[in-house]
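Problem 12. The chain below contains 142 residues. Write out its predicted structure in token notation.
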Amino acid sequence: MTSAPRSEPAPKVVHTDEEWRAKLTPAEFAVLRQAGTERPFVGEYTDTETEGIYECRACGAELFRSTEKFHSHCGWPSFFDPADSDAVILREDNSLGMRRIEVVCATCHSHLGHVFEGEGYPTPTDKRYCINSISLRLVRSE
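Solution.
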């Protein structure tokens, strides 16, 4: 299982909850700032094959690229690696009675989803970054 780092850098983008609420829709706030999860198979980017860069919907930081996206058929967009290893932070998540690794944006510490390992997907990393569509914004390649 992917291990979470012991310490993490402070976020570069910081807002109060009130400022985040003004910037995000209620659904975006629930996922990005309160670690919620959107329902499976409803997200805008679940099955898209559009080429481009996936940014954090909260702060605009580059997180993933379409070249690392794959069809996992799990109901959420899946990537086998972030665009840059420093783009995300991995945190241990023991909520809901299970051990998982949470993925957060390194720039603003917004919740993105979780990463899973050893599921047998034919990817170079054997990892599945299972990311909420609502946490992302796709900037299409030109």
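Discussion. DSSP finds two helices and nine strands in the chain. Students who got a different answer should revisit the alignment rule from Section 12.3.
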